[in-house]
Amino acid sequence: MRSNNIFQSKLHNKILLMMMLVGVVPLLASGVLSLYSINVSHRLNVAEIEDVLLRGTAEELSSFISGVAGIFELQVSFEQTSDIERESQNFILDQMLKEHADLEEVSFISLQGIETARKNRFYPVGVLAEDLRNESGAEKFLTARLGRNYLGPVHFTLRGPMMTIAAPVKNKNGIVISVLSGELNLRGIAEIIDRARLGNNGYLYLTERDGFTIAKSDTSALHENLNLAPLVSDILSGKNYLGPEGQMRYDSVFGGKVVGAGLYFPELSWALIAEWPVADADAILNTLSRQTVLFSFAVFLATIAFSVFLARQIVNPIRVLESGAKQVAEGKFETRVTIKTGDEIEELGDAFNEMTQGLKQLQELKDEFVFIAAHELKTPVAAIKGYLSLVLDGFAGPVSDQIKEFIGKVMNANTRLIRLVEDLLEVARSEAGRLEIAVSPTDAREPIRVTLEELKPLLEEKGIVVSYEAGDIPLALADSTRLREVMINLIGNAIKYSPKGGKIFVTHEVSGRELITRIKDTGYGISPEARKKLFGKFYRVQTSVTKDIPGTGLGLFIVKQIVEKMSGRIWVESKEGEGSIFSFALPLA
Amino acid sequence: MKAIHRNFSLFVLGLAALAALAVGFNVFWVGGSFSAGPAVSGYRAGLAGRGAHIYKNPGANIEKISMRVFHAVPKNKATEAIGSWPGLAEEALQKVSAFHELQFGGKSKISYEIFLRPIVLERDNLYYDSDSTNNGNPHALITVAEEIERRVFRESGDLFDKNFAAPREGSYPVMGIIYEGVGAVGGIIYDSDAESPEAIAKELNVPASLVYRVNVTSSDGFFLLNREFLFDPRYAPRGATILYHEFAHALGVEDRYDAKTDRASSDDIMGGGRREPIEMNYLDPTTLKEMGVF
């Protein structure tokens, strides 16, 4: 018996697996590819954002520094090689301090390296002459004295990071006549860094050549030594961390995992570094990845559900056809299948129905032919029987022993022929619905006793002993004549298919509302394969032992028809070499 | 039934594998890194192993500096002692502390204590002052410091204060003297078994002219500063600068200018910057490197 469990169908599972291969694998592949693409694209985007910010900020910083440095590039319009007059020097310094708030101090240095004028925010009127410095050994002086601009290292003061700038003062002919020096407060740089924004929580920071922070977006961590921090020392050695290849992910000294990139300023030996907390930088990536995974999973589940549905749609009609074919195999040619799929399978169902219709017509023609043939044969064989009896009885003259022997054989053959004709007529009647059954409360014991009496010669001939324990049994609803016919068939078979000296046991049992009669023999037994076909038409068990036993192969078929017509049922239990038990149940009266 | 179970198991396993694959992929790509960077612990560990120390002497740690400041007035100038000097000194000391912490990037910090009462010295200024102040009046520094040591830090001293004199464990102790007289000088006090300044100079590899004998055990460094540099309006913008300059000598830092020619090799607080307000000043990175800051 076939279960309804969907996963028990091989075809269903094959279709399901095929759908998974065809639908899910590409889906998974596309999901993986999507996630990969999103990741790569995001990586490129993050790198580009950081690069753009770094380059833009670097440009601003360079512009700021070069702008301030340009202020110091002073060229007088005269040709003298002597120093500028003190009064003019003081005026120029005043103007520089006034116009550039980021300048903390400015001074003129003579070509001998002695300051000639110096002004700062603390000494707006200028420092005392005794406080003018001898800068002859200072690098800023030595550099500018040679006609080159000087951008000094950053130093950290209480007023903020500062840088020394010095430039030569030249006359009309480009000859250096003195040096202009100043202290630039780098707060302007801090403002540039502070303006730079990277997502919600990203930041920039700038370190000078020794790795100390000059500025950071949130103004924290100033003058912190970051020389050993990730990227810093590498960048200060001249390496840039830009683009997807340069971008790094690491634990920042300021806390948390970040995506970092950096840029080196060769002119100042500074490092500009962008750090973007991974949680912020990858926020959109996480959202997209999550959505992609969820969507892919939803599509995956939908594909599975659709595959199951589709597999059912394909398998169910096939199952209907399978069931119909089995019924046809059982001879039920009136079977019809109903398949409404609107496709070739529905057409197959229609063709199946046409086929069964044709088979039914063929069966009816065959039944009619068999009935007519049998009916037409019945009279001649009866006549043959009668005339042979007359011959044997001597009505045609004396009969020698040899003729008696020959006629006896003809009689036997004619008897088998008569039996065959009767069986065929019985079958034909049954299939034509003309099997006449008249059930009434019947004592089953009487037909059995009559049958046993009738078969006594056969029993004695084979030395088979029958044990019948009738006991008290209730009346059953049965046709007494047909019941006798059933018993003749079943006990007759038991005799035929038992070896000499066998035993037959006939018993009754009341079970529920049924009277069960069992005929047990010690015969040859029946194989499981044979048992399945045992009640079919013209089927005979063909083994080396039974092949010579005469029979039409219609007896059990007729028995089954009769029992079922009496609202009963019949079945067999058997084991090869150990005998068989034929049982039939009839409803109690 | 085996085939059924196998198919169904394969189906479930496939489902689980696909789900696991999807989750694993997500984790890998969302949480994975493209390239690794150095760990932050390495950065911190790197800094931790490099404490600030006195100039060119990594063995003398100065992460904590305990500065005890006195106002010393020669006996003959007792009337010029400024009773409110702690308030006046406080402003400069705050700037000095802030400046120091900034320059050392927080790796060295100063905590200062002011001996509230001006100390009237036992003798007149002629006793303490030297004939020449070209070297900042080291004689005054030594004599005044020894007297303060004896009177404040020794139990027998008339100004002995148990709490004030107690050793400042774990700190580098510095004695600061605001002197009512000429001078601006500072230096490190070394313990030595050598018999003469010359021998000590040889031991320390410095000129013998810079080595003096001093009997002070409460401090490892000391400095002296003319009161006028700190309190006189003429020097006001750079008073804290001079104080720090001399204090830096107590950490072993050398001058960055030539005392004879006034030629500076640096514009930092030890060179040309000694005449600048402390707000604009700095310690040269080459100096800081010799003190373990880099």
Structure, described:
The complex is a heterodimer of chains A (589) and B (294). Chain A has 589 residues and is of the alpha+beta class. Chain A has helices spanning 10-72, 86-99, 139-145, 187-195, 232-236, 243-246, 278-281, 283-329, 344-392, 401-431, 445-454, 456-462, 480-496, 528-533, 555-565; strands at residues 74-75, 103-109, 115-120, 150-157, 160-170, 176-185, 203-207, 213-216, 248-251, 257-265, 270-277, 440-442, 465-468, 476-478, 503-511, 514-521, 569-575, 579-587. Chain B folds into two domains: 1-37; 52-289, Collagenase (Catalytic Domain) (3-Layer(aba) Sandwich), CATH 3.40.390. Helices cover 38% and strands 15% of the residues of chain B. Chain B is built from ten helices and eight strands. In chain B, the strands form two sheets. In chain B, strands 3, 4, 5, 6, 7 and 8 form a six-stranded mixed β-sheet that branches. A two-stranded antiparallel sheet of chain B has the order 1-2. Chain B is globular. Chain B starts with a helix and ends in a 5-residue tail after the last helix. The interface between A and B is large, with 72 and 61 residues.
What share of residues of chain A is helical? 40-55%
Count every helix of chain B, treating DSSP H or I runs of 4 or more residues as helices. 10
Tally of strands of chain B: 8
Number of beta strands of chain A? 18
- Give the CATH topology of the largest domain in chain B: Collagenase (Catalytic Domain)
Assign the CATH topology of the domain at 440-587 in chain A. Answer: Heat Shock Protein 90
Which descriptor suits the 3D outline of chain B?
A: globular
Query: Radius of gyration of chain B over alpha carbons?
Result: 29 Å
Ranges of chain A where pLDDT stays below 50 over 5 or more residues in a row are none
Q: For the record, give the distance between the C-alpha atoms at the N and C termini of chain A, rounded to a whole number.
A: 33 Å
Please state roughly what percent of the residues of chain B sit in beta strands, choosing from under 5%, 5-15%, 15-25%, 25-35%, 35-45% or over 45%: 5-15%
